[in-house]
Design brief:
By secondary structure, the chain is an all-beta fold. The protein has 3 domains: 3-61, SH3 type barrels (Roll); 64-123, OB fold (Dihydrolipoamide Acetyltransferase, E2P) (Beta Barrel); 127-183, Nucleic acid-binding proteins (OB fold (Dihydrolipoamide Acetyltransferase, E2P), Beta Barrel), CATH 2.40.50. Helix content is 2%, strand content 51%. It has one helix at 94-97; strands spanning 11-14, 17-27, 35-42, 48-54, 60-61, 64-75, 78-83, 89-92, 109-115, 118-123, 127-134, 148-153, 158-162, 170-174, 180-183. The strands form 3 sheets. Strands 4-3-2-1-5 form a 5-stranded antiparallel beta sheet, with no helix packed on it. A 5-stranded antiparallel beta sheet has the order 8-7-6-9-10. A 5-stranded antiparallel beta sheet has the order 13-12-11-14-15, with no helix packed on it.
């Protein structure tokens, strides 16, 4: 693999660790060979690294496998999932899933990424549907413009949603930005 094969979301080996490309920019200055600026997220530790790959530099693709699983529960010991084909329980360290936990609800289908046979991270769907458990009442006269209010969801996540969202409704949240997307059809 070389710099022309670098794509967002690809998982490569960087210093022996599997890293996912979360941002890239091809740069070429006059009289010089192209460089690919990247931001890499280590899928084991979660650390973000900036690195510029030079023209001709060999990039090794990480040997990862993906499997579908359903979220079961999270506790102090980690986050627990069930493989949908073998029905075995897959446990992942809490540190690897800490950022994703607010989006996880029982039964949610996710993709588990394994590196060297060991589960190292979880890929969430782009949007998740969560129920609103707390929403302040909308205030009369606040209908002009893009007015939002904080609502609490069933997983404990708090997001800003439009004034018309009420307690008990199901809304879609982006797992990429953590923001309200739309009301889910009931």
């Amino acid at each position: 693999m070389d710099i022309s094969d670098i794509k967002l979301g690809a998982i490569i080996l960087y210093n022996g660790d599997p890293c996912q490309i979360i941002w890239s920019n091809r740069m070429r200055t006059a009289q010089r060979k192209p460089v690919m600026q990247t931001k890499l997220r280590n899928i084991i530790s979660g650390k973000v690294i900036e690195y510029s790959f030079k023209f001709g530099e060999k990039i090794e693709e990480a040997d990862v496998t993906r499997e579908k699983a359903s979220f079961l529960y999270a506790d102090d010991g980690g986050t627990h999932f069930m493989n949908q084909e073998t029905f075995e329980t897959v446990d992942i360290q809490k540190e690897a899933t800490a950022e994703q936990e607010p989006f996880l609800k029982e039964g949610l289908e996710v993709t588990i990424v394994r590196f060297n046979g060991k589960p190292v991270s979880v890929e969430l769907p782009v949007k998740v549907e969560l129920k609103v458990v707390e929403a302040p009442p909308d205030v009369k006269g606040n209908s002009g413009g893009n007015i939002t209010k904080p609502v609490k969801l069933e997983t404990g996540l708090t997001v800003n949603a439009p004034m018309f969202i009420k307690e008990g409704e199901v809304i879609r949240i982006s797992t990429v930005t953590g923001e309200y997307v739309e009301r889910a059809s009931q």
